Amino acid sequence: MNIIKKAEEAYSLGLTKYTPAAGMIDLREEVCRKFKKDYNLDYSVRDVIVSSGAKQSLTNALMAIVDPDDEVIVPTPCWISYIEMIKLTGGKAVLVEMDESNGFDLDVDKIAKHITPKTKAVLINSPNNPTGAVYKKQDVEKLGNLAVKHNFYIISDEIYEKLIYTEEQNCCTASISPEIKEKTITINGVSKSYAMTGWRIGFAVGPTDVIKAMSDYQGHTTTSPNSPAQYASIEALRNSEEFVQEMKKEFDKRRKYIVERLNKMEGIKCYEPKGAFYVMPNIKYFYGRKYKDFIINNPMDMCDYLLEESRIAVVTGAAFLAPHNIRISYSNSMENIKTGMDRMEEALKKLK
Question: Which cofactor is essential here (predicted)?
Fold first, then answer.
């Protein structure tokens, strides 16, 4: 890959000035080509906005469509920022819990029960952070048909789209039908698929009027994203497929290893995630158990215990509205993962 070289070239040539608020035309054209190549979707540059990370793209989308007292339905567990972003608009996050026993699959029937005249959008994320769930096409299509029927948007966060480890392909919501496409705002970027987290380039595609509103909002907040990072992102989207596939194979090895190790630990239940790079083991078995001054009553207690006793860092599932789980990332070296699993296993054995 020549991503770094492209950024260096931009700096050396003085390509560091403002770009259009919605992002460079060349990059937006590359995003259009990406959606055509991957999903046979036709977008024009007017349907694309480039932002300082996918989180800004998502915030822009919510600001563009949500008014005070509108409702946005969010399947949980979910990324922690979603709820706070919705609050910023004056809207209300309606949280709908997905079933862990089904691998946190999208339960559209459950979501349908929460649709009201105030529903402005449903915000979905597949592959999912924190669960690693990959939503089935028939479920996404069912949700899309509800969006058309009840006239709400689907905000589809597909930032982990390239990191799917089963035979299933990413179901790009907008690709299901022309009618669903008109009700879909797709969020994506280069952070996860191209390992460019710190470059802060995200993008969104959607209905022209929505993208125009998002661009207006961005123009009055941050203006354009970092210029050299935009040049580098063109290279990532254009010439990085081989790298992405190699990275995916390595993540898959780590995924299989960590799930196998966790499920061999007494008291741990961990379903196999299909995408992203997280696992969400259930640790409820350990409630009431203790070692020295540590008593485990919730996931945060487990996080503190593992950090102090074993020097391994995990995240409480409560942060993602998963009340009996912890989240572990396998975006680390296999050597560190093996060491971490060994330490975790020894620490759990001490809890009585």
Answer: pyridoxal 5'-phosphate
